[in-house]
Amino acid sequence: MAVEVVYRSSRDLERLFMDKAEADRHDKMLELAELLTDVLQKAVPSLSEQQGEELGIFMAKNRDIFAKAFKNQPDALSELGKDEAAE
Amino acid sequence: MAVEVVYRSSRDLERLFMDKAEADRHDKMLELAELLTDVLQKAVPSLSEQQGEELGIFMAKNRDIFAKAFKNQPDALSELGKDEAAE
């Protein structure tokens, strides 16, 4: 038995990481997801809370692809099919 | 009376533009909106067709802000409140 250090995001207390950088990436992803959920729910008020959260998490997890698509490569979105299949 | 040139996107036959560059911007916006609608509906199947379209259009209209947010400035999303109010 030994004491060890684990890391977690204050936004998601259940998920523990051995690696601080990974915990930090998870926290950043959740931060973006929360902000996205918020603006999308304001823009489309008919969204349920769960739909809003699913959209935020999905987009935040794939932020690199969405960054490309919004910048100048809409076709980057076609990469998403593959990612999902791999998950 | 005279004949004049007007421009439109083949994705939206009702909206006519006097300026070709504006018609082109409108077409590009609609192209991105359609692709977004498609990937979001696949990711969150419970979305209605209308919700999917509203999300796509909203995000495509604000593509510069979303590009910043996904790249590395999540806080850019706070600009959206202002934009909507101005519309």
Description:
Two copies of one chain form a homodimer. The first copy, chain A, contains four helices and two strands, in the order E-E-H-H-H-H. Chain A has 87 residues and is mainly α. Chain A has one domain (7-86): Orthogonal Bundle (Arc Repressor Mutant, subunit A). Chain A has a two-stranded antiparallel sheet. Chain A starts with 6 loop residues before the first strand and ends with a helix. Chain A binds chain B through residues 31-32, 35-36, 38-40, 42-44, 46-48, 50-51, 54-55, 58-59, 63-64, 66-67, 69-71, 74-75, 77, 80-81, 84, and chain B through 31-32, 35-36, 38-40, 42-44, 46-48, 50-51, 54-55, 58-59, 63-64, 66-67, 69-71, 74-75, 77, 80-81, 84.
The computed structural class of chain A is mainly alpha
- The CATH topology name of chain A reads Arc Repressor Mutant, subunit A
**Share of helix among residues of chain A?**
55-70%
| pLDDT averaged over residues of chain A | 92
The largest sheet of chain A has its strands arranged as: 1-2
Total strands of chain A? 2
Low-confidence stretches of chain A: none
What's the CATH H-level superfamily name of chain A?
PSPTO_1197 like
Based on the structure, what is the oligomeric state of the protein chains? homodimer
Q: Give Rg of chain A in angstroms.
A: 16 Å
Strand content of chain A: 5-15%
> Which architecture of chain A does the CATH hierarchy give at level 2?
Orthogonal Bundle
Write down the domain tally of chain A.
1
What's the shape of chain A? globular
CATH class of chain A: Mainly Alpha
N- and C-termini, Cα separation of chain A: 34 Å
Number of helices in the DSSP assignment of chain A: 4
| SSE succession of chain A | EEHHHH
Protein name (chains A, B): YebG family protein
Pfam family, one (chains A, B): YebG
InterPro entries (chains A, B): Uncharacterised_YebG (IPR009813), YebG-like_sf (IPR038627)
